[in-house]
Write a structure and sequence with these properties.
Layout (H helix, E strand, L loop, with lengths): L56 H52 L1
Protein backbone atom coordinates (compact mmCIF):
# COMPACT_ATOMS: atom_id res chain seq x y z
CA UNK A 1 0.00 0.00 0.00
CA UNK A 2 0.97 3.63 -0.10
CA UNK A 3 3.11 4.61 2.85
CA UNK A 4 3.57 8.29 3.62
CA UNK A 5 7.15 9.47 3.90
CA UNK A 6 7.96 12.00 6.56
CA UNK A 7 10.34 14.63 5.21
CA UNK A 8 13.63 14.93 7.03
CA UNK A 9 15.26 18.31 7.43
CA UNK A 10 18.99 17.68 7.92
CA UNK A 11 19.87 21.33 8.50
CA UNK A 12 17.87 23.49 10.89
CA UNK A 13 16.43 26.58 9.30
CA UNK A 14 15.96 28.59 12.49
CA UNK A 15 17.41 28.93 15.93
CA UNK A 16 17.78 25.69 17.82
CA UNK A 17 17.34 26.01 21.55
CA UNK A 18 19.16 23.37 23.57
CA UNK A 19 17.27 21.29 26.08
CA UNK A 20 17.83 22.28 29.69
CA UNK A 21 18.25 19.42 32.14
CA UNK A 22 18.21 20.11 35.88
CA UNK A 23 21.49 19.20 37.52
CA UNK A 24 20.11 18.59 40.99
CA UNK A 25 16.85 17.10 42.14
CA UNK A 26 14.53 19.61 43.77
CA UNK A 27 12.91 18.22 46.88
CA UNK A 28 10.00 20.04 48.52
CA UNK A 29 10.57 20.90 52.15
CA UNK A 30 7.96 21.84 54.69
CA UNK A 31 8.60 24.48 57.29
CA UNK A 32 5.52 23.58 59.29
CA UNK A 33 3.39 20.47 59.29
CA UNK A 34 -0.04 21.09 57.78
CA UNK A 35 -3.08 20.59 59.97
CA UNK A 36 -4.68 18.13 57.57
CA UNK A 37 -1.70 15.78 57.36
CA UNK A 38 -1.56 16.04 53.55
CA UNK A 39 1.72 16.20 51.68
CA UNK A 40 1.40 19.59 49.98
CA UNK A 41 3.44 22.76 49.85
CA UNK A 42 2.29 25.77 51.85
CA UNK A 43 0.85 28.82 50.09
CA UNK A 44 3.44 31.40 49.08
CA UNK A 45 3.66 34.52 51.18
CA UNK A 46 2.02 37.60 49.73
CA UNK A 47 4.36 40.36 48.74
CA UNK A 48 3.70 43.93 47.74
CA UNK A 49 4.00 44.16 43.99
CA UNK A 50 5.19 47.12 42.01
CA UNK A 51 3.20 47.66 38.80
CA UNK A 52 5.04 46.12 35.86
CA UNK A 53 4.16 48.92 33.44
CA UNK A 54 4.71 52.53 34.37
CA UNK A 55 3.30 54.96 31.87
CA UNK A 56 4.57 58.47 31.49
CA UNK A 57 2.12 61.13 30.33
CA UNK A 58 3.57 60.90 26.80
CA UNK A 59 3.28 57.10 26.85
CA UNK A 60 -0.29 57.32 28.10
CA UNK A 61 -1.16 59.79 25.35
CA UNK A 62 0.42 57.49 22.76
CA UNK A 63 -1.53 54.49 24.07
CA UNK A 64 -4.81 56.42 23.99
CA UNK A 65 -4.10 57.67 20.45
CA UNK A 66 -3.23 54.15 19.27
CA UNK A 67 -6.38 52.70 20.86
CA UNK A 68 -8.52 55.41 19.26
CA UNK A 69 -6.92 54.74 15.89
CA UNK A 70 -7.55 51.01 16.17
CA UNK A 71 -11.20 51.60 17.12
CA UNK A 72 -11.69 53.97 14.18
CA UNK A 73 -10.09 51.60 11.67
CA UNK A 74 -12.06 48.57 12.91
CA UNK A 75 -15.26 50.64 12.87
CA UNK A 76 -14.63 51.80 9.29
CA UNK A 77 -14.01 48.22 8.16
CA UNK A 78 -17.17 46.95 9.83
CA UNK A 79 -19.30 49.78 8.41
CA UNK A 80 -17.92 49.16 4.91
CA UNK A 81 -18.70 45.45 5.21
CA UNK A 82 -22.24 46.27 6.33
CA UNK A 83 -22.64 48.65 3.40
CA UNK A 84 -21.39 45.99 0.99
CA UNK A 85 -23.93 43.50 2.33
CA UNK A 86 -26.73 46.07 2.05
CA UNK A 87 -25.83 46.94 -1.55
CA UNK A 88 -25.63 43.27 -2.46
CA UNK A 89 -29.02 42.60 -0.89
CA UNK A 90 -30.60 45.53 -2.72
CA UNK A 91 -29.17 44.42 -6.05
CA UNK A 92 -30.41 40.86 -5.54
CA UNK A 93 -33.86 42.26 -4.70
CA UNK A 94 -33.89 44.35 -7.88
CA UNK A 95 -32.83 41.32 -9.95
CA UNK A 96 -35.63 39.27 -8.38
CA UNK A 97 -38.23 41.92 -9.21
CA UNK A 98 -37.01 42.17 -12.82
CA UNK A 99 -37.03 38.39 -13.27
CA UNK A 100 -40.49 38.16 -11.73
CA UNK A 101 -41.86 40.78 -14.07
CA UNK A 102 -40.25 39.10 -17.10
CA UNK A 103 -41.66 35.71 -16.14
CA UNK A 104 -45.14 37.17 -15.50
CA UNK A 105 -45.15 38.80 -18.95
CA UNK A 106 -44.30 35.50 -20.61
CA UNK A 107 -47.15 33.63 -18.91
CA UNK A 108 -49.70 36.30 -19.93
CA UNK A 109 -48.84 35.97 -23.62
Amino acid sequence: MIRPKIPVNPLPTGFVTPLVHPTTAVEPHHTATPACGCDHTPAPATSSRVPAVRLTPAGLLTAVAAGTGVVLVVGAVLVSMLLAVAITGASVAVCAVVLRSLLNQQTRR
